[in-house]
Amino acid sequence: MKNKLIKENKFNIHNSTQYLKDNIPQKELTATRLGKLRVDIKKHLAEGMREIDKVVKNLIS
Question: Is the pTM of this model over 0.85?
Answer without folding.
Answer: no
